[in-house]
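Database export, one record per block. Field names are fixed; values are copied verbatim from the stored entry.
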Amino acid sequence: MALKCDSTKIRIFREKMRIPQPATPYTAEQLMQLLSADHPNIKKRSASLFTVKKNKAIGAEVYCGKETIIIKGSWASPTARFLFYLSLILLGIILPVIIYAVFFLPPMKRFKKEVANRFESLT
């Protein structure tokens, strides 16, 4: 089964990967246990949302819904997010967005696909 991206709106920086749940849906705890062998840095944020960290800056957010599992690339820590926002304020918009698109966006996309490939075997 192929992975689908959310193509309802054209978004360069915020693509979401949607993976359909099987007939008996998995819970967030089950998905966290599945990922814990490969990625030990997992932080639960709510009953159905958790963050998987690759390093201090790059991570992925996983939302476990009733019909789909949604995976979104994100900053791994609030500190990294704060530093990016601070650079937006101090340096303007153009330079930080170029740095983000060149250095942070490709690893986030690769990590998001890595997490999605781990879940693809479930369906």
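Remark 1: The two ends are 8 Å apart (CA to CA).
Remark 2: The longest strand covers residues 68-75.
End of record.
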